[in-house]
Each structure stands twice: as structure tokens, then as C-alpha cells.
């Protein structure tokens, strides 16, 4: 197996083993995929700005002409030096182009493939994991430790300290996409430039207005049974052209989070401890605690199944996306709405 474990991924990107002539980077965190692919290319050549050392190729073009990838990988740089080929995968199958390189890997060139949000069972993933000359990095949403590292890196680069409560609030707002998280922190450091320290008020002023909070407002209205608030927030979302399938996907992730937390509670852990240990914005913890208390594991399983179906249908039929997502959210709100005594 040449699947690089998450805990070893950053070290691998900084110094990849020479035996891996082909590296596949893929996963749902497209920002992290792009960041790691770019970093791998940078450490694989002497000068990433030299067009003779680094070549970018479109995956669909390679799929149409599989032999071209090997031709590029075995090309000798005009002025010497190490070489890299950066392939951004499209929707077409790259296996026929990659197989010859894995069987006969180049020695002076590394091929870095930037993949999409693929399943582990995808043909190229399986092929790469079985090959001695191939390595695979799966990129998932950043965990608290990774987000903390991003905050530390960016604030240090800007010469700023950050207050503990500001850092906690920021941890709850970031994640899911590496580049988006880094961009938010950089925006925050620009806002606080010259102040010496980032305070909670700075986070609320800059990051607190991000669309993530608007999405959370919709989701919390649904899972708290506040149908009136849900109507208002959904109307605002649609007027601002929020993508229905993205909103449905965010709601699905929230339901899965609640299901995981519910499982911890059902194992005997105190609900307050479970919620406190989750990486959530501090303002949401009380509301999520109430949601957790109101929903059983069975009900959450049904909600997860319903939302998974909604996400799929909203992507397949974009014209009905708003209606499908609105109905799914309202079903949640109606099932969680407090009953009158």
C-alpha cells in the first residue's frame, strides 16, 4: 500500500520519497488538494517558473491521447535539472495514460495528478495504491489541529498575536476547504494590521459575516424546529443565489455530526462534554446541545438518508434545487418543532 496516512501527509509533501514517480492528490477538500499538488510540484523541480522543468497538462487532453503523458515525463529538460508534470484531472479516465508510467517509472521527473472528490474505489485511486512507484494523498476537511496550524502560520507571518477567545471563535468558523480557510485568516490579519493582536471583535467583524454563518443560521433554524425563521433565512439565501446543493450538503454534514455526537452520548458520555469537545463556533454550542437532546440516533439516521437523497437530486436537477432543498429543510424543522403542551 502506498496510501500516505493523514498524519504523514505534510511531511511527505515537504520531502516526497524519490521512489514515487507518480503522486495522486485527491479528495473533497479541493483547496487542500490544490495546495498540496502545487507544493509537490515546487519541491520536485529546481525552478517551478521554468517552463522546461514544469509542465501543466489538462487531464481530459491526456485521456484523449494517453501516450502524451509518458512522452512528457521522459522528455529531457533543455537546460538540465529536475522535471515535473502537473496534471489536473477532468472527467475522463486517466488509467490508460498512467499505467505505463507506473510499470516503467521515469527517474528524473515526477508526475503530480490533481484529482477530484473521488471515492476510494475509483479506478485511478486503486491503480495508484497498488503500484510501487505511485503514492496517494487523500485530502479531507481540516481538523482542529490543522486549522490551528494555519492560524499560527498566517498570524506569525503577519507579525500578530491572537487572543485565546479569538482563536477559539476562528477555529469554529474555518475548515472544509484549506484555501478558503487560509484566505479568511489572511483577510483577518490585514484587518488587524498594526494592532499587534487579533481580538474576538476582529474575528466577528471580518470572518463573522462570512456565508458560513448564514448557512449555519439556516441549518440551526431547521434543526431547532423554528419554521418561521427557516422561511425567512431560506428566502434570503435564495435571493443571494446560494447554491441549493451546497446548502443541502452543509445540512447533511451537520446531520452526520449530530449523529456522531449522539452516538457518544448514547455510549454514556455527558452531552455537555460531547458538545464542548466538538469544534463548533462558541455561539452555536448551546443550540446544538438542544438539538442533540431532541433527536435520537434513529431519527438522525432517517434525516441523513433523506438529505443524502436531496443532495443527489439537487445536483441532478438544478432547476428544482431550491424547491428540493427547501422541502428537505422544512421536513427537518417540522419533525423537530417543539410540541405544544
From TrEMBL:
UniProt-listed InterPro entries: DNA_pol3_clamp-load_cplx_C (IPR008921), DNA_pol3_delta_N (IPR010372), DNA_polIII_delta (IPR005790), P-loop_NTPase (IPR027417)
Catalytic activity field: DNA(n) + a 2'-deoxyribonucleoside 5'-triphosphate = DNA(n+1) + diphosphate
Presence of keyword Nucleotidyltransferase: yes
An MF annotation (GO) of this entry: DNA-directed DNA polymerase activity
Gene3D superfamilies in the record: 1.10.8.60, 1.20.272.10, P-loop containing nucleotide triphosphate hydrolases
Domain (DNA polymerase III delta N-terminal): residue spans on this chain: 24-115
Pfam families in the record: DNA_pol3_delta
Keywords (A to Z) from UniProt: DNA replication, DNA-directed DNA polymerase, Nucleotidyltransferase, Transferase
Residue spans crossing the bilayer: none
Its EC number(s): 2.7.7.7
Family per similarity comment: Belongs to the DNA polymerase HolA subunit family.
UniProt-recorded name of the protein: DNA polymerase III subunit delta
